[in-house]
């Protein structure tokens, strides 16, 4: 039985050969056609063109990137300036009893801290940097809470004297001491007041006395908005007309909002607080810091305890700016770290550019009433 034989596959080359033989059998025309056909069959198959990658030409920018619009400001007030003077911030201990009022130089301080010392008396720490008054006072002695407030400034502290144990706290905190009792320049008694309310000082001399480790401008202490309208209390606070404090049985300062000047006006109780020049004491921001107020290991006359403040940690704060108040949290991580302010959502609580008074409200015994 014969098996069918499959036809052989015809290659293109074989087809060209048969067509060529056929063409030769048809005369001259066939010869020409055969030649053309053979040329076509012998030509190599065309190959694909190689891929070409074209890189676009990018002209480099001929313009420098714009300079960020960040204004130069005084570090303790946030107020814009053409240049920050290369000088330190100087803190000065100022008395605040009725015998000391009206004080000199408080109206020129960048920041003022109000503290309660022994016998429920108020004492101030005035910090100077953007302005340099020639006379400040009455200058009084140091207290245990002073290093917690002054150390973050990295500058000198001017005071009249103090107990040996408390005096040792100042250099131990890295603060340069400028003491009247030690004969430091810039401090002297005036004849128009009686001791111990008559020691006054010259801030320019204090700044010139700063040593190499304490002569640089201070780092910023609070966060400031670019303008008053962007301050935390203005943006998210509630209206307020009066801030009534009870810091102790002897200290009841108050602040009243004055829309005309855009400032808070200070009073001691019901009496307007003024400087020796007759100017009303004012503040752009009033910061009420509630903190523990324990007794320190030191004592005063008749074994009266000398208190301090628990300022390393965190607690409640109320900030008053622009006729409004807002609640938040203060936080301080170390003695020489600045006290930072935060809103309830954790974002920085910004102050308005200007002067700031910090009222240290003893936790449990002090209070703030906003009306």
Query: How would the global form be characterised?
Result: globular
Contiguous uncertain segments of 5+ residues? 1-43
The biggest sheet amounts to: 11 strands, mixed
Order of helices and strands: HHEEEHEHEEEHHEEEEEEEEEEEEEE
Share of helical residues:
10-25%
Distance between the termini: 122 Å
Instruction: Provide the structure class.
Output: alpha+beta
Q: How big is the Rg?
A: 41 Å
* CATH-defined topology: YerB-like fold
What is the total domain count? 1
Task: Summarize the structure in short.
The chain is α+β, with helices and mostly antiparallel strands and 371 residues long.
Describe what you observe in this structure.
This protein has one domain (90-370): YerB-like (YerB-like fold, 3-Layer(bba) Sandwich), CATH 3.50.90.10. The protein contains six helices and 21 strands. The chain has helices at 12-24, 27-42, 146-150, 164-172, 203-208, 232-236; strands at residues 90-95, 111-116, 122-128, 156-159, 176-179, 187-189, 199-201, 238-239, 242-246, 253-258, 263-268, 271-272, 282-283, 285-291, 295-299, 305-307, 313-321, 324-332, 340-342, 356-362, 367-370. Strands 1, 2, 3, 4, 5, 8, 14, 17, 18, 19 and 20 form an eleven-stranded mixed sheet that branches. Strands 9, 10, 11, 12, 13 and 21 form a six-stranded antiparallel sheet that branches. It is globular. The protein starts with 11 loop residues before the first helix and ends with a strand.
């Amino acid at each position: 039985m014969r098996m069918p034989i499959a036809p052989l596959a015809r290659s293109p080359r074989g087809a060209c050969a048969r067509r060529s033989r056929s063409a030769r059998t048809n005369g001259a025309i066939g010869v020409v056609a055969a030649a053309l056909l053979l040329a076509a069959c012998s030509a190599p198959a065309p190959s694909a063109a190689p891929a070409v990658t074209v890189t676009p030409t990018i002209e480099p920018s001929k313009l420098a990137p714009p300079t960020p619009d960040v204004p130069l400001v005084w570090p303790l007030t946030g107020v814009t300036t053409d240049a920050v003077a290369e000088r330190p911030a100087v803190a000065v201990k100022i008395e605040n009893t009725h015998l000391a009022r009206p004080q000199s130089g408080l109206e020129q301080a960048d920041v003022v801290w109000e503290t309660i010392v022994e016998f429920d008396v108020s004492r101030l720490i005035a910090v100077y940097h953007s302005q340099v008054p020639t006379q400040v006072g009455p200058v009084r002695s140091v207290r245990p809470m002073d290093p917690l407030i002054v150390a973050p400034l990295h500058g000198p502290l001017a005071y009249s004297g103090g107990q040996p144990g408390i005096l040792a706290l100042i250099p131990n905190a890295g603060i340069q001491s400028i003491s009247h009792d030690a004969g430091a320049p810039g401090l002297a008694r005036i004849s128009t007041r009686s001791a111990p309310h008559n020691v006054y000082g010259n801030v320019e001399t204090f700044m010139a006395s700063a040593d190499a480790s304490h002569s640089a401008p201070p780092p910023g202490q609070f966060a400031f908005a670019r303008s008053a309208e962007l301050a935390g209390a203005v943006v998210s606070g509630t209206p307020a007309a009066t801030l009534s404090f009870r810091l102790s049985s002897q200290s009841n300062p108050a602040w009243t909002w004055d829309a005309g000047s855009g400032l808070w006006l200070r009073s001691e109780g019901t009496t307007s607080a003024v400087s020796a020049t007759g100017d009303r004491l004012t503040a752009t921001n009033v910061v009420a810091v509630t903190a523990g107020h324990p007794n320190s290991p030191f004592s005063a006359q008749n074994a009266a305890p000398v208190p301090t403040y628990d300022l390393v940690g965190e607690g409640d704060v109320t900030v008053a700016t622009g006729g409004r108040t807002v609640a938040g949290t203060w936080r301080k991580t170390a003695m020489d770290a600045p006290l930072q302010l935060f809103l309830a959502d954790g974002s920085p609580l910004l102050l308005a550019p200007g002067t700031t008074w910090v009222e240290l409200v003893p936790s449990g015994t002090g209070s703030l009433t906003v009306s």
